[in-house]
Specification:
Blueprint: H1 2-24, H2 28-77
Helix pairs in contact: 1-2
Length: 83
């Protein structure tokens, strides 16, 4: 998930900073330099956010699964009532 977030946030930041530089009428070299810096910074932020989200989702699912399996095992080992 981290690579996907990095692949989205980095180019998005590049496009926005490039557009801002063009609209502001500044030099193209300065705009591209700022856009490249934004690309790497936001790609890094996106990677960290994606890895964190992936970890949290996996841990949540693992905890829910283990809880469900423990309840199933407990139910399975309880004596069945005879009717």
């Amino acid at each position: 998930m981290g690579r996907a977030y990095a692949g989205i946030l980095g180019p998005l930041a590049f496009a926005l900073v490039s557009a801002r530089g063009v609209l502001a009428g500044g030099g193209m070299e300065q705009a591209l330099l700022a856009a490249c810096a934004a690309l790497f910074v936001f790609a890094g932020i996106g990677y960290l956010a994606g890895q964190t989200a992936d970890y949290l989702v996996r841990e949540s699912v693992r905890t829910q699964f283990q809880t469900a399996m423990a309840a199933w095992e407990q139910k399975k080992t309880q004596p069945q009532p005879t009717t």
